[in-house]
Specification:
The protein has 173 residues and is of the alpha/beta class. The chain is built from six helices and six strands, in the order αβαβαβαβαβαβ. 29% of the residues lie in helices and 23% in strands. The radius of gyration is 16 Å and the shape is globular.
């Protein structure tokens, strides 16, 4: 169903991880606007609502008012100035979140055309763990995977074995 190409490899790992921890009877609030992966979750039988594109650093009302039983956040926290505020505002007891990991051989992502599509944070796994724990979450499961490219060079070679994505399933303490 999914190829090994980006973003399909990431989507395959993410849906498998989600299905391992979240049942289809649970409802999901997916942080971020409707996107290809929220559609994949729906196609796999999940009931998903998304935030509406509001600046979650300044406005967490959608999160606070949600009745969803699970919050998902796939590659969202690196775009926020204060992910701690968002993590504290979540009322549900279950969180599935993924972030791109900081790569020592590559600088943080910064779009030249979209001012909102920039990474304020690229975490090391321990930093993301610490953020979650400080915000009142206990990590139950975690996984990492690589994101190789078909380009030639030293950095593409390093991407073959250096994990790029980190996903966790956490529960409120």
């Amino acid at each position: 169903m999914y190829e090994k190409t980006f973003p399909n490899k990431r989507f395959k790992h993410t849906i498998e991880f989600l299905e391992k921890h979240i049942t289809k009877t649970e409802t999901i609030l997916d942080l971020g606007v409707v996107n290809p992966f929220s559609e994949i979750m729906k196609n796999h039988g999940y009931t998903v609502e998304n935030t509406a594109g509001e600046d979650l650093d300044l406005n967490t009302l959608t999160i606070e008012n949600s009745n969803a039983s699970v919050v998902t956040a796939f590659e969202i926290f690196e775009h926020l100035l204060s992910p701690f505020t968002v993590l504290k505002s979540i009322k549900t007891n279950k969180l599935v979140a993924s972030v791109p990991l900081k790569l020592w051989f590559s600088s943080a992502y910064r779009s030249n055309t979209d001012m909102l599509d920039r990474h304020y944070h690229e975490f090391e796994d321990w930093q993301f763990d610490w953020l979650l724990e400080k915000a009142g979450w206990k990590i139950v499961d975690r996984q990492k995977w690589t994101n190789p490219t078909k380009k030639i060079g030293i950095r593409p070679m390093l991407r073959l074995f250096t994990p790029r994505y980190y996903i966790v399933y956490a529960e409120r303490i």
